[in-house]
Design brief:
heterotrimer; B: mainly alpha; ABC transporter involved in vitamin B12 uptake, BtuC; two-stranded antiparallel ribbon; 14 helices; 4 strands; about 0% strand; C: mainly alpha; 2 strands; about 5% strand
């Protein structure tokens, strides 16, 4: 399946981002944009700076140079929770679930931003606090249904197999109803069947909720199939940007992956 | 056989989110409360009140407070004794300076003062983790030890440094009898314990646990670490402060700063670890265990030693106590970090199937 | 001025003792990432084992002083080895890969166990300890200041011993095969294991070395104050020392100890009276706390970069 969809509105634009740790340059002068509604992939060999890029977008790293424009607002520095408040959700390369909590509680935590009742009502758990809890539980149950994880609702996530943990993590990110969802290797370490499930979920999220998705993935088959546009990083530099078919024919990208000497 | 949940269907999210979703649990809890409130006062001796019941009840509340911070929010505190002291001395000062206030109102307000001090000491913890926070709370402990000893205003310039609680009464009733002491403490512990349970199973509690389990991920999904940690500090210090006020007013009657020394902090920490990190029930079990074990050892060890011809002094008993506590801490951390509470839920799992093996 | 110097020097020399305890913490933290709360209990146990053996050997067996002293140190060293072995075998090995905070709490449990056991076995009184260090107060710099500056000779010896100990440890870490292995383990457990360094053995050695450092600290401290339970509490002062110096730095432990020692003595003498006295008990902690706000990694600690 090759999809050709067109998008007009830019949701997020990265301009001339440079990031270094001490003497190591992780990203140098990267620019690209993410259009509203598309599935955008970031690919590149290991150590190319893909995760660092996501970390910059959601405020975990602060680039030394460049700016990020999100929903028309330029920003210099922000904290990760502010990114979350503005509608940027995220999953991690190494699963970052709350291991001591159940699936349900993990996903409920994703609703946290929208839960406002104060300590006093929380302590009594009547009135607004009880209503709020039920209301959000409904949303969360909808996500649980969507991801087909009803059976593990009350299981502590530490006990779940890897593939399900990845799914719960996606659920937690979805619970916040983000406008932009950053997925860091959502299919790494999965078998074919799990990968197919995950692809389906990603596409469905994009279709049903209209969520813009930016994902990092190593499986080229998956990337070329599901993404609208691809950006390619190598050694912290951008070496390609375009629709999947362009990327397939891009000599610099082929060299980076086949390892031509620089 | 009797502990089955088959056939109990939950038709609403409300029922599923109830505090005790299983009917048998509800019955047991109601029965326990009925015994604690209605039966105990008629059958228990004064010694049992003073040596067992009142300490267990008040220290349970303090342990719940510490568990909020340590078990739910994952922040180690070695200074809970200090926050008990703050609660106690704040209640004392309120009762001295505003004599028209009911002593129990003073205790509650003392809790709020402790929450304020907790936040003040919690602020440095926003930047630091783990051992560093342990050190910050030690600072609180030693500073409180010193302040209540040396700053005479806190003790209302009493020459001995020891202070007395106001007479305990409410609505014209004298509440100084051991039975009344016990019932009052129980009311405080049950009401505040329930409130704590409600908070930890709501969104604030989930925030705390998110910070505990993985602070970076929590921040990225929108939990503000500062807010989450500070609320945990505030709630924890409030509960510990109220427990401190009760300990001083209801249990001790008159006290010195040594009543809230670092030993108290360690005692509470042991209750939380042995009872179960991240469990309200565990806090209560832990408190009961830590209060009862020394009593048991004092009774059991000297005769046991006599069997072998050893003379066991009280000092030796206390050294044994220290060894047993230490060994239990290590044991629980290795084998069952969720403590007695987890053992309890394993027992319930077994009971579900009993008498059938599978 | 002379009085100020006297207080300062007294504080610095007391700080040397804090440094000695902090050193034990740093060794274990570097090699195993464990914040060993039991270091204070180890100081107490070592000192008790030493003083009791010394007493019995001298008074009951009538051994000459030198031989009794050697026996005391030998026995205390054996006790430290047993503790190191037990810590590695029964605690650390079972808690491998747990979070630091769990290990920290486990060492608190160990603290209580070791304290209880040591006092059951060796007694719980105050035992004066004499290991042959002179204790007379002496006056120095009499030519500069009128009447000179009063210092305790024992404190000077303590400083000399601490200096020798640090030099010895530095040599051990830099020049020996075991030292190199220790540094490798400190850098990366898994990597060290993969090149064939036996982790368990290394942990045992580190705990043993920390135990021997505790023995030296206990001997010096016991000579100064008498061997008693409060030794284990004084060891808590190592916490602010570490925050000041950084958890992974040996020079940090030394300098942090000196700053804390001098700072709290100066504060007690010059600020204390206006605050009702006795501020020594919390000054170090509050100083460390304020310092945390400015430089969380300590004077010599490594900056922590977090990754996701």
């Amino acid at each position: 399946m090759t999809r050709t969809r067109s998008f007009n509105e830019v949701l997020l634009a990265v301009e001339n981002i440079s990031l270094s740790f001490g003497g190591v340059k992780a990203l140098s002068d990267i620019s690209f944009d993410i259009a509203k509604g598309e599935i955008r992939a970031i690919i590149g060999p290991n150590g190319a700076g893909k995760s660092s890029m996501l970390n910059c977008i959601n405020g975990f790293y602060h680039p030394q140079q460049g700016a990020i424009t999100y929903k028309g607002v330029r920003r210099s520095q922000m904290r990760p929770h502010q990114a979350a408040e503005q509608g940027i959700g995220r999953t991690f390369q190494n699963i970052a679930l709350f291991r001591g909590m159940s699936t349900l509680d993990n996903i409920m935590t994703g609703r946290n931003l929208r839960m406002k009742t104060g300590l006093f009502w929380q302590a009594l758990r009547i009135g607004p606090a009880a209503r709020e809890e039920i209301e959000h539980r409904k949303v969360v149950e909808h996500i649980i249904d969507f991801l087909e994880i009803q059976h593990i609702r009350k299981v502590p996530v530490g006990q779940l197999p890897y593939g399900l943990q990845k799914r719960v993590e996606l659920g937690r990110a979805l619970a916040a109803q983000p406008e932009l969802l950053l997925l860091d290797e959502p299919m790494a370490g999965m078998n074919i069947e799990e990968k197919q499930d995950m692809c389906r979920f990603v596409l469905d999220v994009n279709d049903e909720f209209g969520t813009t998705i930016c994902l990092i993935e190593h499986d080229m088959g998956v990337v070329m199939d599901i993404s609208d546009r691809v950006v390619v990083l190598d050694y912290g530099k951008k070496i390609g940007d375009g629709v999947p078919d362009e990327i397939k024919g891009n000599q610099a990208v082929i060299d980076a992956y086949l390892g031509v000497s620089h | 056989m009797f502990y089955r949940e088959a056939g109990q269907y939950k038709a609403s999210y409300q029922a599923d989110q109830a505090i005790f979703p299983i009917a048998q649990d509800r019955i047991v809890v109601v029965a326990l409360l009925a015994v604690a409130f209605l039966v105990v006062p008629f059958v228990v001796s004064e010694y049992t009140y003073r040596a067992v019941l009142i300490p267990v009840v008040i220290l349970s509340l303090a342990a719940i407070g510490l568990n909020v911070l340590m078990g739910y929010c994952g922040q180690v505190s070695l200074g809970s004794g200090a926050f008990m002291a703050v609660g106690a001395y704040a209640a004392f000062n309120l009762s001295v300076r505003l004599p028209f206030l009911n002593p129990f109102v003073c205790i509650l307000l003392g809790g709020f003062v402790a929450a304020g001090v907790g936040i003040a000491f919690g602020v440095p913890s926003l930047r630091i983790k783990g051992f560093y926070l342990a050190c910050a709370t030690l600072a609180a402990q030693f500073f409180a030890d010193w302040a209540f000893l040396r700053i005479k205003w806190f003790t209302n310039y009493t020459p001995s440094g020891s202070v007395n609680a106001p007479p305990l009464q409410a609505f014209g009733y004298d509440l100084s009898s051991p039975t009344a002491n016990y019932l009052v403490s129980l009311v405080f512990a049950v009401v505040l314990g329930l409130a704590a349970k409600n908070i930890v199973r709501g969104h604030v509690g989930r925030q705390w646990m998110a910070i505990r389990d993985m602070d970076i991920a929590a921040e990225i999904i929108g939990v503000r670490p500062m807010y989450a940690k500070l609320t945990a500090f505030a709630v924890s210090s409030f509960l510990i402060g109220v427990a401190g006020g009760l300990w001083a007013f209801v249990y001790l009657g008159s006290w010195e700063p040594a009543a809230f020394s670092i030993d108290r902090s360690f005692q509470l920490m042991f209750m939380v670890i042995i009872g179960g990190l991240g469990s309200i029930l565990g806090s209560v079990l832990g408190a009961a265990f830590i209060v009862l074990l020394p009593i048991f050892l004092n009774q059991a060890l000297p005769p046991l030693g006599a069997l072998f011809g050893w003379k066991i002094s009280t000092a030796t008993v206390s050294h044994f106590e220290s060894m047993i506590f230490g060994a239990l801490i290590v044991f629980f951390l290795i084998v069952e970090p969720h403590g007695l509470a987890r053992l309890w839920s394993v027992a319930k799992e077994k009971l579900r199937l009993w008498p059938f093996p599978h | 001025m002379a009085f100020f110097l006297e207080v300062l020097i007294g504080g610095l020399l007391a700080g040397v003792l804090y440094s000695l305890v902090a050193l034990g913490f740093v060794l274990i933290f570097k090699a195993s990432g464990v914040f060993n709360f039991a270091q204070g209990a180890m100081v107490l146990t070592a000192a008790l084992a030493l003083v009791r053996t010394l007493d019995i050997a001298q008074k009951e067996w009538h051994w000459p002083f030198g031989l009794a002293l050697a026996a005391g140190f030998a026995f205390a060293a054996v006790v430290m080895a047993v503790i190191a072995w037990a810590a590695e075998r029964m605690v650390l090995r079972k808690l491998v890969n747990q979070e630091g905070i769990i290990l920290f709490m486990a060492t608190i449990g160990m603290t209580f166990f070791i304290e209880g056991l040591a006092q059951t076995l060796f007694g719980a009184d105050v035992y004066p300890l004499n290991i042959g260090l002179p204790k007379e107060p002496v006056f120095i710099l009499e030519s500069v200041f009128d009447g000179g500056i009063l210092v305790n000779e024992l404190d000077i010896w303590a400083a000399v011993i601490a200096g020798l100990l640090v030099a010895g440890l530095a040599l051990f870490f830099q020049r020996t095969r075991i030292g190199r292995a220790l540094r490798a383990v400190a850098d990366d457990h898994a990597a060290a294991q993969s090149v064939g360094i036996p982790l368990n053995q290394i942990w045992f050695i580190v705990w043993l070395v920390a135990g021997l450092v505790a023995l030296v600290a206990g001997a010096v401290w016991g000579s100064k104050l008498g061997v008693q339970f409060s030794l284990s509490l004084l060891a808590l002062k190592a916490l602010p020392v570490l925050i000041l110096g950084g958890f992974t730095s040996v020079p940090g432990a030394i300098i942090g100890g000196l700053i804390i020692g001098a700072g709290e003595k100066l504060a007690e003498v010059f600020v204390g009276p206006s605050m009702g006295g006795g501020i020594e008990i919390w000054f170090a902690y509050v100083l460390a706390l304020l310092f945390l706000l400015v430089r969380p990694q300590g004077l010599f600690g490594e900056r922590i970069i977090e990754r996701v």
